[in-house]
Amino acid sequence: MLPLVFIQSVGAQETQSITNPTSVLSIFLSLLVVVAMIFALAYVARRFNVASIGNQHVKVVASMVAGAREKIMVIEVGDEQHLIGVTSHTITHLSKLDTPIPAKDNIKADGAARFKQKLIAAMAGKINPEIKKGDNRDA
């Protein structure tokens, strides 16, 4: 009966302790994975601008840096555009714009359409040399 008690006490001592090198390595790698996931999620949130997805009533039309911590921005609220000054402490309404300026999205869409037409023309010229570079026929 004595050997059975001895075997049970030896088995209880084989549990891993915090000073075991493999246990410390496992804890460190787990912590590293968690920190990497936090940074990856922060990158994705910043890259795709997750914070402003649901806000469709107020849009930033244009922005310009005026100093180290100062910006001048044109915002669109409904159908009106306003010029505001933004510092680290305050936001100041400078004026209401009488003639609205086009939004960034419209400018990007027009630029993308022009690029697409130029790319189609260039590709058509390489595939069929009889088509001239300036020809804007749809393919």
**Fraction of residues in helix:** 40-55%
- Summing up helix and strand content along with how strands pair, one would put the structural category as alpha+beta
* DSSP summary: helix tally: 3
- What is the terminal separation in angstroms? 92 Å
From the spread of the alpha carbons, the general shape counts as: flat
Low-confidence stretches: none
Number of separate domains: 3
Reading side by side through the largest sheet, how are the strands ordered? Answer: 1-2-3-4
Secondary-structure element pattern, one letter each: HHEEEEH
Largest beta sheet, briefly?
Answer: 4 strands, antiparallel
Total strands: the figure is: 4
Walk me through what this model shows.
One of its GO terms (cellular component) is bacterial-type flagellum basal body. The chain crosses the membrane at residues 22-45. Belongs to the FliO/MopB family. Its main location: membrane. It is found in: Cell membrane; Bacterial flagellum basal body. The longest helix is centred in the first third of the chain and has 27 residues, at 21-47. The chain folds into three domains: 15-54; 56-96; 102-139. The chain has three helices and four strands. By secondary structure, it is α+β, with helices and mostly antiparallel strands. It has a four-stranded antiparallel sheet, with no helix packed on it. It has helices spanning 2-13, 21-47, 104-127, and strands at 58-65, 71-77, 80-86, 91-96.
